[in-house]
Design goal:
The chain is α+β, with helices and mostly antiparallel strands. The chain has 14 helices and 17 strands. Strand 16 and strand 17 form a beta hairpin.
Length: 494
């Protein structure tokens, strides 16, 4: 194979214009870019509408937005009305139903239990449950249903449905009644459709089963677990899994609206399937949740999960694009974790970059909120110049692996200094400067190497690793470059 020459200096220079542009703009500038009419493309483009006109087009009474930039909540703002009957305005404290975004928030509590040693992600769910038992039949003969499968929709459960919720005046089923499809449950019973880890099929029932397993393992109500283990530590002060919502929170909670923007009668529906659909929250609190994931992933926070544990939320399990809680996918050149939500009269979305400190949360109180959220999301990504709008990555591209830097004795580093030849055309030089090691492509520039083992190093500006090789006597003989498309050996020649 041919070694790809990488211009490190060019990579750095290309990154500067966007950064400088961002630094020169205020939060008010970004809000104006989202709220105002955009350059219209085509007769059906939504870009030519102001945000107010966009909401009117789709009969969405209220919208709330929070934007993450540089690992902070950059701005948040509410628009329109929380309730068309009362005219109450939406502000940043107005709570909405998060619907299925409840699932990754609940998954964080599952991972906290794993971290605390209550169970593992690969334990048989029936070894965790004490209040009910799943009959997997022949489908679980070789592999059990596990927390990993339930939180990534790969358990083999075949419900595939969401939950319609219950009118506040209706009797509520127990969780066991939901599992067994017994009245007053309004969904069919849980059932296995295939062996675990053979296909990803969205399963709200599976997440609800995990809800009960977590409650059994902790010996406490699920909503209390979520408050103490996730919401409280993160500072999600306007969030609750309590169903129905408390009178205190109800005072500033959005109401459900139809696709025509009218009241649906009941203020909202109640969801005993709390882990799947029961979270009440705000975009600001969802942004705090995403930030906790991002900061934990880079080792800057461990209020709930360690850096190692949070990687389970960001690494697909291998069947489909779901990890433990989140969908993880590439958009343009960026890798993102995300989840959407759709409850009776509510729509919500959460999207954040895996390793860069930006993202967004948008919540609405109407059945047609999806179109509005999609356009707002597009405007935010364009205004902030996210790499989601970059050209698609080449075939076979994979997201950078999170690596941990270690200290290596300078005397050992000195043994790696020298000239290495990969081919007659490609020469590499390793130098040591003030205790820091550098790799230079002759004619292409150089970049610092960071140790992840005594003989293995990595670059931070591009996905590339270097392993040094030695002979039987310990003498350094060469190096191996690990790139996206394969490995290349270079021999030490001086």
């Amino acid at each position: 194979m041919r070694l790809r020459a990488v211009s490190f200096l060019a990579l750095l220079v290309l990154a500067l214009p966007a950064a400088l542009s961002a630094q020169s703009r205020t939060a008010a500038d970004y809000m104006a870019a989202v709220e105002g009419a955009q350059r219209s493309v085509g007769p059906d483009s939504l870009g030519g509408l102001t945000l107010t006109e966009l909401m009117e087009r789709f009969n969405v009474p209220g919208v709330s937005v929070a934007v993450i930039s540089d690992f902070e909540v950059h701005w948040a703002k509410g628009y329109g009305t929380a309730d068309v009957e009362s005219g109450a305005p939406v502000d940043t404290e107005t709570m909405f139903q998060a619907a299925s975004i409840s699932k990754p928030v609940a998954a964080m509590a599952v991972l906290r239990a794993v971290q605390d040693g209550l169970f593992t992600l690969d334990d048989d769910i029936n070894d965790i449950l004490t209040s009910w038992e799943l009959d997997g039949g022949e489908f679980t003969r070789d592999r059990p249903v596990t927390p990993r499968g339930l939180t990534s929709h790969t358990s083999g459960l075949g419900d595939g449905f969401g939950f319609p919720g219950y009118d506040p005046s209706d009797p509520l089923p127990t969780i066991v009644q939901i599992f067994e499809g017994q009245e007053p449950s309004n969904v069919r019973a849980l059932f296995m459709e295939r062996p675990p880890m053979t296909l990803m099929e969205y399963s709200g029932g599976g997440v609800t089963l995990m809800q009960q397993a977590l409650a059994d393992a902790r010996g406490r109500p699920f909503e209390a677990i979520m408050q103490d283990e996730v919401l409280g530590p993160i500072g999600m002060t306007r969030s609750s899994f309590q169903q129905p919502i408390s009178p205190e929170h109800d005072r500033n909670a959005a109401r459900a609206h139809s696709g025509e923007g009218t009241s649906k009668g009941a203020k909202w529906h109640v969801y005993p399937e709390m882990a799947a659909a029961g979270l009440w929250t705000t975009p600001t609190d969802l942004a705090r949740f995403a930030l906790e994931v991002q900061r934990s992933a880079i080792g800057e926070s461990n209020r709930v999960l360690s850096r190692t544990t949070v990687q389970e939320m960001l690494s697909p399990v291998g069947v489909g694009n779901f990890a433990v809680g989140f969908s993880v996918s590439r958009i343009g050149q960026g890798w993102y974790f995300s989840h959407g939500g759709s409850n009776w009269g509510f729509r919500a979305t959460l999207l954040a970059h895996k390793v860069k400190g930006y993202g967004l949360a948008i919540m609405t109180n109407a059945d047609q909120g999806g179109a509005v959220m999609a356009e707002i999301s597009r405007r935010i990504q364009m205004a902030y110049e996210w790499d989601s709008f970059a050209d698609p990555a080449p075939r076979g591209y994979r997201p950078p692996v999170e690596r941990t830097e270690i200290d290596v004795a300078e005397a050992l580093l000195a043994t790696y200094v020298g000239t290495y030849e990969a081919s007659p055309e490609i020469t590499l030089i390793v130098t040591l400067e003030d205790g820091r090691m550098f790799l230079e492509w002759v004619g292409e520039g150089k970049a610092q190497l960071f140790a992840e083992a005594e003989d293995k190093f990595f670059l931070k500006i591009v996905e590339l690793q270097v392993t040094f090789t030695t002979d039987a006597s310990g003498e350094v003989t060469g190096l191996i470059l690990h790139q996206e498309d394969g490995d290349q050996t270079a021999l030490k020649v001086g």
